[in-house]
Structure formats: structure tokens, C-alpha cells
Amino acid sequence: MEIQAKFTFDEMWEKFLACDRAHDGLFFTCVKTTKIYCRPSCRSRKPKKRNVEFCFSVEEAENRGFRACKRCQPEIGQSPAIEFTQRVIAFLRGHYDQKIGLDEVAAHIGMSPSYVDRLFKQETGETPRSYLEKIRIDKAADLLANTGKTNLEISLEAGFQSTSHFYKVFRQLKQQSPGDYRKAKGARHNG
């Protein structure tokens, strides 16, 4: 079953630096200088960002001339729980801009909402809802840094139904307001 989520380079880099096990199998980190590819959760020493590229399958990495890391063994198959987690993450990433709840995620996966919630939390340490909010904030941060859109436009485009909730969650996750984040990133402004 082919599962491919939409990621920016910076999102994948962030997940790789965090050794995020929940993203194993969704993409692979390829180090140009060593010609080795790894899982996002690999605990090996991290390369410089400029020496990294990302692939979405073992075959793609190997076709580009990379060999599997001996530490994380990315070429070995995964457990059903990892596939489940990948399916939930792919669904959340593909629908972050829509109004979705646990019922929609569970229906897509074909399991009960309580089981999806429990298993996802067991595998990732967070609920599908909190994970979805992180995706939305990452998208909003990218828009703040790279566009001149208003905070309202960004809030809606990132999937938030309420601007006050957007501001609250943004401040919780980024430790600053959207406006301060935009200023710190030196983003373009309308005007």
C-alpha cells in the first residue's frame, strides 16, 4: 500500500533532527557525503543540512545510489502499528486544511475512534488532534515566513475554524505570536 504524505524539506529536516519514530517509512533521509539513507528516527550523528536530501521510498533511495544505514536498517519491513501511524499521519497531512475530527480519521482507517486515539497516542505520545494542530501550525508558520497573507487568511488556509484558537495554539507551540514569528523570520509584508 503506497502512503505518501506532503512534506516540505524543512518539515522533514525537523522530524529527522527530532528522531521522530512516527515518520519512519513516510520518508527517508539521504546523506550525500556518506551515500547512506536512514529512517527519520535514526539516532546516528546528524549531518549538515546542506548534505541531506529526502526520498519517499527505499527503492527511490537505492536507485539514487544510497545504501541502507546499518544502525537503523531502513530496508527492513515495519510493524503493523507503524503502518497504522503512517496512515493516520498521511490522512492528517492530506486533510489538515479541512474540518476533520477523530470520527473522520477513524472512518478512513477503518477502526473505532477510541482505538485510533489510544493506539496513535501509544505510538507517537500525542493524540491525533494535537498532532493535527502541530501540522496546521507548521503550515501557518511556513505561510507567515514566506507570504504576505494576513493572519486571518493564514489561519483559515491552515485549517483553523477560529482565529482566537489559531493565536492560542500558535503561541503554545511556537512560544510567540504569529506577528512576532513573522517579524523574526523577516517575511514579506503586504503593502
From TrEMBL:
- Report if keyword Signal is assigned: no
One biological process GO term for this chain? Answer: DNA repair
**What molecular function terms (GO) are annotated for this protein?**
DNA-binding transcription factor activity; methyltransferase activity; sequence-specific DNA binding; zinc ion binding
Entry's SMART domains?
A: HTH_ARAC (SM00342)
Q: Name one Pfam family in it.
A: HTH_18
Please indicate if the UniProt record lists RNA-binding as a keyword: no
Protein name from the UniProt record: Adenosine deaminase
